[in-house]
Amino acid sequence: MLSRIKFCGFNRKDDVYAAVQLDVHALGFVFYPESSRYVNANQARELIALVPPFISTVGLFVNATKEQVINIMNSAPVDLLQFHGDETPLQCNQIAEVVRRPYLRALRVKPGMTANDLLEYDAQYQASSPWFRNLLLDSYAENYGGSGKVFDWSIIPKELASRVVLSGGLTMHNVKDAISRLHPCAVDVSSGIEHSKGVKDPCKMHDFIKAVKLANALPHVPLPENNNEF
Question: Which residues are designated catalytic?
Fold first, then answer.
């Protein structure tokens, strides 16, 4: 399976226009007011209008209420939800059910977590809702949102690796290694394709996609046991 590509954190029309000229599979929009990449529903509606068919749109939410998500979806109906806060499986399912959208569940991987922790988390969400699609594994940070740092990929068990969306500190320089080792179903990047916070860099977007394509063409190289590279 080839790893797909999600670019996240769009808030400028020029950036969306540049991204959709490339072979990207999904664009993410952050509906978390504390984020420097935040967009409100009206802004998101204008940006989504620039996205052609067959490129998915993803809405990132952090501890939003059902009513807040409904209001945003009424104006800016994204294809996929991404829950990035402290939402429970029940809350995720209730929101997904009412807006009739599948969802990703972000897990911020803390130091000390094990492969069993990730498998248990995945199993919990798999059992909780038909709307659940995949885990998105991100680096842990005190505040919600990305840290721009890589976590220890060696804790991702191989039976889960091909089903996760891998995030956290990915760039054109390390995504090839990530894919050749793990072959995740998708990779997710935000700061790694920016030249300043919230402003995308067309060259970095192009180079990131080029690196993913190169990695997809390589044989799978398993991550070594007890890897301490990160």
Answer: 8, 138
